[in-house]
Amino acid sequence: MTAAWLGGASYLIGLLGYTGSLRRLGVSPYLRWITAMLLQILLLYGAAMLGQLRLGIYGVTGLGVILWGTWQILGLFHRGSLPFEGIHLFDFWMLGLGGAMVEVLARSPLVHYDNFSHWAVMVKFLVFSGHLPAATDHLISFTSYPPATALFITQFVTWVGFSEGAMLVAQFLLIWAAAYAVFAVLRDRTRALTTMILCFTIAGSLVFNVAIRLNNLLVDYVLPILTVAALAGIFAYRTRPWLLCGHVAVFSAALLLVKNSATFFVVVIAGAFLVTLLKTNRTRWALPGNLLRFAGTMGVASLPFLLWQWHVHATFTVSKHEISAQAYRHQLTSESPATILKIARKFGEQILNPQSLSTQGILLLNLLLVGAWVVIRLGKRRRNPLLKTAGWLDGMFGLYYLSLLGMYVLSMPYAEAILLDGFERYMGSVVILGLYLGAMVFVRVLDATFYEQNFEKRNSRSFATIMSKNAYQLSTLVAGFFAITLMYSEITGTNFTNRMNQQTLPLQLQRCSRPWTHLNHRKVLVVDPHATDVNDYYAGYAARYYYFTDRAVGQENFMVSPAAFRQIVQQYDYVVIPEFHRTFTVLTQKVYHQRVITGLYRVTPQRLLRQR
């Protein structure tokens, strides 16, 4: 425990060194945390590509500690000090409820299937092997998936200690730092109403993340929240072109290294970046320079991803879900027009389904934006961009629908595509992005409607009438109430999920034995009485992660003769029985003359030896 606290303090001091340096370079105080994290990810990525991940972790964190120490020493001589930004209402909300979520996640197990098929096993591999997967490392199945979040989590757990809770806390810190960036768009951060609306947005966005929640390492929430932070930075740096270019390069490069599907979100960032550049200086001579800045920035941002693509092609002969025109062309030619039409029809039915959470979110967002536009346009007699914002967001949703349909047709096997596997999870990402964008535009518009536009003169009397003051106070209370309630609901929901998951396979494995942390090739048989866990490879993937071996499989059916049963068991080095399996127990009594119920057993020619 002491080592974990010391390691955590070292990591925090290193992070503070980066944030302090970025602030002195002009980075917004609300973007400094996420910018520092993404910058460290890119540095770690460079070290990992050079085969020096462990050295990179110590070097990157050590550099941060040196920077922190340097600024502390300079501060003693009153040099390099930073202005105090003040503490606002949203800071208390972020710290209080964020801390409560950290406490819950630190005690949460991993249960979701995809944690064991890739995300968690990738982190465990990086932590205990110290390098990126090679062609001989068959433990990692999805070798084309970029490693950005895994590298960040690996850095964190290297210092605080490896555990499932620590991995979840690391990813949440990344998410929370990105969410904090939305406050950079506020015109006046002392106004309780606008800040509580953004807090409400953060909490409300988790409703559309319900398919995976925060107690999983999947990146479906990471993608949109990093995009939101990138767009908030584009707005904050719109009059500072060089800082703007550096910001876009860092965020776009990091996003492309999160997941292959991040391309759509980077396109959104690139579009906002280009529009901002063209709006900054509209003279005829500025156009070539701005286009050159745009091309150079996006070119630099794409280099780490292109390097990753080269690494995948050079290292692995075959890689699941890699970006390959040849693979897409092969799948497209292998599917008949009738098959593609059937998938498209199913896709259209799901979009128009009123029970679809993503469809409900899109309709609700449009209703809120159009409704607010009408109220402000008619009530305040003011022109505002909310209707235009709704149109832009609908266009974004439409493009995402097309890209998602293309993924089902080009990348997924027909059996999964026809079921629209993961539809709500994938659509939840773009709905979350739209929700944040709508909220950021709305709070800007709302602030512009306030009676007093001089920030220095705003106080408790800065209202046109007593009725408007009462409406402001009531709206603030309502927004604050729902911001706290929805976040508290997420916390209690995660707690409830943890309690309900006590009898799931991953936790049963934890009760059977200690986890293995040495990469091995031992053959492990998981005796699982649930056929679904075996048929969808859940049992095998969970055991591969827990026992850190690439040769773990699950089996449910043991309706065989005693001789055949002995032959099956003797093929393995270990047998794990997470839950009582009647057939396996009866045959063990007949063949080995011993009674086994649950636990981990080493296979010998004469018997099964219980392992502690």
> For the CA atoms, what is the radius of gyration?
27 Å
Structural class: mainly alpha
- Note the gap between the termini: 23 Å
Number of strands: 5
Q: What is the overall shape?
A: globular
Low-pLDDT regions: none
Secondary-structure element string: HHHHHHHHHHHHHHHHHHHHEHHEHEHEE
Helical run tally:
24
Give the assembly state of these chains: single chain
β content, as a range? under 5%
- Average predicted confidence as pLDDT: 91
Q: What characterizes the major β-sheet?
A: 5 strands, mixed
Helical content class: 55-70%
As laid out across the biggest beta sheet, the strand order is: 2-1-3-4-5
Give the topology, please.
Blueprint: H1 2-24, H2 32-49, H3 53-76, H4 89-105, H5 113-129, H6 148-160, H7 164-180, H8 192-205, H9 222-236, H10 241-256, H11 263-280, H12 286-315, H13 325-334, H14 337-351, H15 357-379, H16 386-410, H17 414-417, H18 423-448, H19 466-500, H20 505-512, E1 524-527, H21 531-535, H22 538-547, E2 552-555, H23 562-569, E3 574-577, H24 582-592, E4 599-603, E5 608-610
Parallel strand pairs: 1-2, 1-3
Antiparallel strand pairs: 3-4, 4-5
Helix pairs in contact: 1-2, 1-3, 1-6, 2-3, 2-6, 2-7, 2-10, 4-7, 4-8, 4-19, 5-6, 5-22, 6-7, 7-9, 8-18, 8-19, 9-10, 9-11, 9-18, 10-11, 10-12, 11-12, 15-16, 15-18, 16-18, 20-22, 23-24
Characterize this entry briefly.
The chain is built from 24 helices and 5 strands. The chain has 612 residues and is mainly α. Among the domains are: 1-320, no CATH class; 507-610, no CATH class.
